[in-house]
Every structure is written in structure tokens, then in C-alpha cells.
Amino acid sequence: MIEFALAREAADPVEEVAGVDDVESGHEEQSAREDEVIALPRAIALPRASEPLDPARAVTVDRARALEELFIARFDDAMRRLYRVPHPLDEALYPAGPRDRVHLKRTRSDEVVDLMKRLRVYERDLLDTMPLDEVSEFRVFTRSLFGKKDVRVVVAACAVSPLDELIANRVSSRAGGRSEVERAMAAVQPREGAFYFIGILSTTGWEDGAECHLPASPNILSCLVENGSGTSWQLRHADDQRWSGMQRLFDPESTREKIDRVKQHLVEHPELALRGGHLTLEHVREEMSVHDSVLRAAVTELLHRDPDLSVHDVSGREILKRRRI
């Protein structure tokens, strides 16, 4: 079971950090503390009219905050275990260890406070449970002969929520769309001179076709993320070889959770409850949207647990079958 109660890191004073602007001007940079949280520039818009609530898609304030925290925490953990990142345009792999990157965190805490004032909502408890459109950004740099830092690759996770509706109603079913994609991109502010991998979570899900609003830029690869059922998450992105597996950084579901989800699906599948019943493993992999290694691990564990199940090759297709007798 996923633990959603992750601690929100407190905001610290802002320090100068190595950024694209500093690189271009040649100024000396100061390294940023890990996990520093700063506020994004205010960009207040008038609250949008509330849309009719769809109970099937409704997300509460607490749920939105939990999804945001889980998404950012799992992304941060995955990035800290990554020691090389690809740069598709340079056709190179750059070191991305602790000494080769800076980590920035930003929130829209000031905007949330201003929205609450505009909506005449003065509840401290609500402020403490609101999602804050957090951004976690890792900038990977190289050093020139004279020690100047050049940002090569930026990997960023952004969370967006319908802040106005969550403040006014404590719940929202408004799916993210073009404005949410633009808001996330504005928070990262991609520039020329670096390659960007960006994942954007909408805590209330995404509209159909929202991926068409992702930027089509030669130095940006981005994906949309939303929570599915249980521990599963859905990622929408272009089928581009340049990802080189980097999109997996934006999938909060751990490998163990994926294996357990697939096993549960197989155990509860009505076809395998029948004597002689069988499933095509390729179809299972596509239905569950998992890597082949995850499927094989789940099947292997299930075979050890249930001796009546076995894997057979039928005309080049692997099937999981229950013994007839």
C-alpha cells in the first residue's frame, strides 16, 4: 500500500544557483542546497468559473496534495539514483552524480495565499493541506577548462492542480488541459543551450487529447502524468527514441508495486480460475502497460505459488495456462 503521508519540506531562504542565465553571462555561480524550496514568481489569474462536479473524477484537496507529494518524492528518489543522463542533440551521456548537478524546488505558495484572499477564504488548515504546484528540477552541468559551468541537461517534474476550485470547493473534477501545460512550462522556462526532459502531473487527470498541447521543440521531450487505479499511473508522450528510457523517471509506481499489481490481476482473472483456462502473456503485458521484465517477474512468482499454472509456447506465443486435471 502506498504511503501518501509524505512530509512537506519547509521553505528555506533563497540562494543563488547555477542556471542557464548564469551560464550565458559567465557569472560565478553558487551551488544550491539539495531540496531547497523557493516560491515561483506570482502569476495570479482570476479564478475560473466552477464546472459541474463529476463524482467519478472528483479529487479532494487532501488527495491532490498526496498525489503531488508522492509524484515529486518518487521522482527525486529516482534522480538521486541516476548517475548519467543522455543529451540527444549532442549524442552524448553526461555524468549526473551529486557533484555534476544542482537540485532546485519551487512552489506557488504565494499564489495560493493570494487566491485564498481573493476568494475570501481564511482557513489556516486549508492552506496547510493545499497542493502548491511544486516543481522539482535537476540541472546537469559540465565544467569548461577554466571551471565555468555549462548546463547541458535539465530534468524536471511539475505538478499542477486547479488551485481556485480546490480553494473554493475543497474538491475538483476539472481535468488539466492547455493552460495547465503552459503553466508547467512557464515554471521551468526552457531555454536554448540545454536539453529538457519534463514530466507534468495533473492531480485531477488530463483532458482527452491534452498531449497535443505539449511543446514541439527540438530540445524538449515532455510527458503528461496522471494517477490511474490503485498504484498504477498513466504516462502520455510521443513515441520518440530520444527518451532513452528517461520517461520512467516520471512514473511514481515502483517495480515492486508493478509486479504486485500484475500478480493480483492474474490471480483475480476469471479465465485462470477455470480448469484449462489460459491467457496470452503478450496481451497481459499490453493490458497492464508494463515492461516485459515486470511481467516475467510476476509470472515467475505466481508459478512458485500455484503449481497448477505453467507457461507454454503455442505457435510462437507464450501462454499462462491452468492444468486441466
Give me some keywords for this one.
Arc Repressor Mutant, subunit A; 7-stranded mixed β-sheet; 3-stranded antiparallel β-sheet; globular; 325 residues; 9 helices; 14 strands; alpha+beta
Can you characterise this structure?
The protein is an alpha+beta fold and 325 residues long. It is globular and about 70 Å long. It is built from nine helices and 14 strands. The protein has a seven-stranded mixed β-sheet with strand order 1-5-6-7-9-10-11, with helices on both faces. The model is unreliable at 1-36 and 41-47 (pLDDT under 50). Helix 7 (255-268) packs across helix 9 (292-305).
Largest sheet features: 7 strands, mixed
Structural class: alpha+beta
Question: Into which percentage range does the β-strand content fall?
Answer: 15-25%
Mean pLDDT: 86
Count every beta strand, where a strand is a DSSP E run of 2 or more residues: 14
Major β-sheet strand ordering: 1-5-6-7-9-10-11
Stretches where pLDDT falls below 50 for ≥5 residues? Answer: 1-36, 41-47
- The shape, in one word, is globular
Distance between the termini: 36 Å
How many distinct helices? 9
Q: Return Rg in Å.
A: 22 Å
Number of folding domains? Answer: 2
Q: Give the % helix.
A: 25-40%
Order of helices and strands: HEEHEEEHHEEHEHEEEHEHHEE
Short description:
The protein is of the alpha+beta class and 325 residues long. Helix content is 30%, strand content 24%.
Layout of strands and helices, then pairs:
Blueprint: H1 20-25, E1 36-39, E2 59-60, H2 61-80, E3 84-87, E4 92-95, E5 101-107, H3 109-118, H4 124-129, E6 135-143, E7 149-160, H5 163-169, E8 171-172, H6 178-188, E9 195-202, E10 220-227, E11 233-236, H7 255-268, E12 278-280, H8 281-288, H9 292-305, E13 309-314, E14 317-322
Helix pairs in contact: 7-9
